[in-house]
Amino acid sequence: MTARPACARLVPMQSQSLPLFPLPTVLVPGAALGLRVFEPRYLDLVRECSRNQSGFGICLLVDDGSGEASAAAAFGTEAVIEDFDTGDDGLLTITVRGRRRFRADTVCVRDNGLQVATVEWLEPDPVEPLRPEHGLLAMLLRGLLEQVGGEHADSLDQRSDDAAWVGWRLTEMLPLSDTQRQQLLQEDDPHVRLDSLLGLLPDAD
């Protein structure tokens, strides 16, 4: 992403603005993520999204060259709020779900410090069957879900042949680095994404 000017009051009709919540993690489509919210700008974000029944963008914080994670990646995922709670420390906690992927063009900053991006939504994943060369990945995912259970285990039998779904669930569950997850998030072709996951397996050679 580029400069961060003050936010204009109006956004051109052909563009769509999306408030951002940069984090040191990658959210992928279909994945759930729990967040503790305490900064005023992000409390404002949650209130705004709840009032408008809209989502916000989660982008990975990356090193901008200074040695610290201080810049947000240009590609991210829209997060929609599914649940609210209050933690033992009295802080607001929310559960969000990854939905659409986006690419941020320009970013501005509101008076309260909240970043708002003009975004382009990426094409949704096509529903295509798993290719034979990716059968190992489906077996791996089945083993993981049978071991840990969770919400996705209930969908395994219906979606284990969906190339995009298998790829996102493995991206979510495998012990990958944030950089690796970000690269997978930016890949548009679900079969190429699966090829990349195959290459990341320890015994892929």
TrEMBL record:
<dbReference type="GO" id="GO:0008233">
    <property type="term" value="F:peptidase activity"/>
</dbReference>
<protein>
    <submittedName>
        <fullName>ATP-dependent protease</fullName>
    </submittedName>
</protein>
<keyword id="KW-0645">Protease</keyword>
<feature type="domain" description="Lon N-terminal">
    <location>
        <begin position="18"/>
        <end position="205"/>
    </location>
</feature>
<dbReference type="GO" id="GO:0006508">
    <property type="term" value="P:proteolysis"/>
</dbReference>
<keyword id="KW-0378">Hydrolase</keyword>
<dbReference type="InterPro" id="IPR003111">
    <property type="entry name" value="Lon_prtase_N"/>
</dbReference>
<dbReference type="InterPro" id="IPR046336">
    <property type="entry name" value="Lon_prtase_N_sf"/>
</dbReference>
<dbReference type="InterPro" id="IPR015947">
    <property type="entry name" value="PUA-like_sf"/>
</dbReference>
<dbReference type="Pfam" id="PF02190">
    <property type="entry name" value="LON_substr_bdg"/>
</dbReference>
